[in-house]
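User: Quick sanity check before I run a bigger batch. Here is a single chain. Can you write out its predicted 3D structure?
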Amino acid sequence: MSGILAITFCGITMKNYVEANISHKSHTTVKYALKMLSSSAETIIFMFLGVATVNNTHEWNTWFVLLTILFCTVFRIIGKYLVVTFVILRDRKVYF
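Assistant: Done. Predicted structure follows.
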């Protein structure tokens, strides 16, 4: 996991420097090659997920489903109110 994060942040950091040092034609080529690579990777991941879903036997666990829905709802509400609070505090202006 840390390797994936390291590569991601390295790419984000290097983006500005690489774009300034290559030609426009090379930039366009790299841009579309990476789009094609990302689409291919996404397709392969969804194919593996589909095969894994069909091949494995599943056991229904009601408590797991209910707790997952409950926690997703609770943390979404908490996250929503935290973001709204920070936006309101950031945009609040003091008038004299």
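The chain has two domains: 1-58, 60-95.

User: Great, the batch can go ahead then.
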